[in-house]
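re: that chain from earlier
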Amino acid sequence: MSDAPATAEIKPAATILLLRDDPTFQVLMVKRHHQIDFASGALVFPGGKTHSGDHDPTWAHQSLGWDLFDAEQRALRIAAIREVFEEAGVLLAKRLDGAPMSGEACPMDVRLAVDAGSVPFIEVVRDLEAKLDLAALTVFARWITPPLTPKRFDTWFYAVNAPAEQAAACDGRETVDAEWIAPSEALRLAGAGERKVIFPTRMNLQLLSEAKSAKDAVERAAARTLVTVRPQIEQRQTGRVLVLPPDAGYGIVAEPLENVM
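^ sequence. v structure.
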């Protein structure tokens, strides 16, 4: 593995930790398609890069909690909600009358059209007579990719209680499976080599596994002081390791570089 230039463009991205207790504490994870160029075949949380449509100012009329956030956070939260809609079919929104979304928010062809960019997400939400619930998302973590690969991201992780009235289903394009799984079980499967889980996902699963329930996980996230994780490469006697900030909530982490990718 060779280090990419530190000047590689860092793109904003957003990821959702969709949580539920049914009956035990679980998080929604999706399996990336093996042909996707980033984290192919890995078990991940739904998420991706922000798009230009996430910055559309007319979202002010299709969002709840708009005035609570600055322009950056609005776009990131819209992106996170769009990604979990595209990849898992869950729409974090409410009807205009305040009622929760229920059933299948949209047919698969609509989700795929949003993903392809042929149908603006805002038009779908408007046609559903709904408003995105930006305030439902609680900041869980923020990671900036180290200069290990040409693709770098500034990723915000958000925790949210899953709407009970909606079912998750993978899109079949970017993701080939969607499953509710206990964070500890996902870690066990990764440790046994039965699932591919990339380093940032594994670290956030470990942090998530400290909670006893979905409610507890969201409350812990809200109470934590956000420390942006900028992993650093250090040379140790045993080889190069990736080191995390000790005050970021993950404990003392010095991961062998060969285990990171």
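The mean pLDDT is 88.
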